[in-house]
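A favour, since you know our structure tokens better than I do. Could you add the entry underneath, on a fresh line?
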Amino acid sequence: MPEVKDIFTDSKLVLRIKDKLPKLFHMAELESARAGKIGMEVGSLRERIIVALLIYKFGSSVDTKLPITEPEADVKLDGRKISVKTITGDGGVKAVWTVDAESAKRFIDGYTPQCDIILVKINWGSTEGGFYLIPLSVQQEIFKRLGRGGYLKMPKAGTNPRGVEFSQDAIRAMTAHRGTLRIQINWKKEASEYDNNLLLASFVL
């Protein structure tokens, strides 16, 4: 049975991730840039790159056609739900996107960890962050330790939250946990040309 952790024991794929991910994520930023600013769509582009990686490794075992009733999961591997999250620097990591404060509160009140998380933390110009697999068991342990209020960050009243974030304490605890797997990446931007269509820049290039 294929598992996401198999990526971390595939030495050739690990080297490919170290080499390709900074280049592809840089291309995603170039693709989504408007008037010198990176647009919100960069997150979707980066997610598609990670899904392409999963398909490259696991083929038809990857299911990308998840129903809208799966608010956290982005993909399934052999039936097991996976959430894909990417973040630059120490910004907030969304647990879920929501449209208003009421939806955010409802999500928080009923939340428990549901699926494994692939988290990519990008730190341009350094080797901090990397490609992480945070298993469901690790999330459950940290959630129990911190409690709902310490694990999730409640949006500020009177604002449009556009989502509920994990707390910084939760992210630090999960990424440092002994059960979390990590591939260290040198986040180096390289000048490169691309054909204005990221879909043509597959992970196998």
